[in-house]
Amino acid sequence: MSLFRIFINQDDDDDDMATSKKVITREEWEKKLNAVKLRKQDMNTLVMNFLVTEGYVDAAAKFQRESGTKPEIDLATITDRMAVKKAVQNGHVEDAIEKVNDLNPEILDTNPELFFHLQQQRLIELIRQGKTEEALEFAQEELAPRGEENQAFLQELEKTVALLVFEDASNSPVKDLLDISHRLKTASEVNAAILTSQSHEKDPKLPSLLKMLIWAQNQLDEKAVYPHINDLSTGQLQDPPE
Fold it and tell me: What DSSP string describes the chain?
């Protein structure tokens, strides 16, 4: 971010800027980039934060050995957290709830929205398996009372039960509930809740920094023509169109 401020805050004449943009050559841009010093320790901490938050326990352990970077939390807790996440991703919601309660019962006790979404996912799995009667009974006994207390929950429940109305739910307006992406969404929500309960950030820092990079480039675009990083996966500079 400091590099972009160098160019954004240059004392160019305001009238000239209104009619033309400053042109920054690749040589000048790379010189400025090379002048920005980043500590290896900070970069290692950023990598470890990503591995821990996303649950790559083996990679985190190996990175710790190779770089000497200490993780922010006990790596053993990652294994437990990933077991919960995997259970949800595989549709084993009851197992996931048990594992969450084994980790910390307060997670679900203090997060009614998360508990509802887990129960909603459990209902979806019953419908997916064709257990219509069991699904209706579960919806009535476990989810309907929560829907009466929360309008948002009620709307989500009605949308989920609508899966039973269609002969082929996979082609219905609510088919997205049966998509694997919905399992992943619920799993991510559980993952974030567990991280929060462990006093750890629920989102890795790296994606946020990349978003800041894109924002900074967009801001600078209004004032200058300069080499861009268009492909974040490679970080290669691209010359602007002439």
Answer: -HHHHHHHT----HHHHHH--EE--HHHHHHHHHHS---HHHHHHHHHHHHHHHT-HHHHHHHHHHH-PPPSS-HHHHHHHHHHHHHHHTT-HHHHHHHHHHH-THHHHT-HHHHHHHHHHHHHHHHHTT-HHHHHHHIIIIIHHHHHH-HHHHHHHHHHHGGGTSSSGGGSTTGGGGSHHHHHHHHHHHHHHHHHHTT--SS-HHHHHHHHHHHHHHHHHTTEE--EE--TTT--EEPPP-
Dihedral sign from CA coordinates of 180, 181, 186, 189: positive
Tens-digit pLDDT profile for residues 96-154: 999 999 999 999 999 999 999 999 999 999 999 999 999 999 999 999 999 988 999 99
Q: Are 93 and 128 in contact (CB under 8 A)?
A: no
**Pick from 88, 158, 79, 161: nearest CA to 118:** 88
pLDDT for residue 71 is more than 60: yes
d(CA 133, CA 127): 9
The fraction of the chain above a pLDDT of 90, given in percent, is 52
Phi then psi for residue 85, to 5 deg, are -60, -45
Q: Is the pLDDT of residue 216 over 80?
A: yes
Q: What is the pTM of this model?
A: 0.71
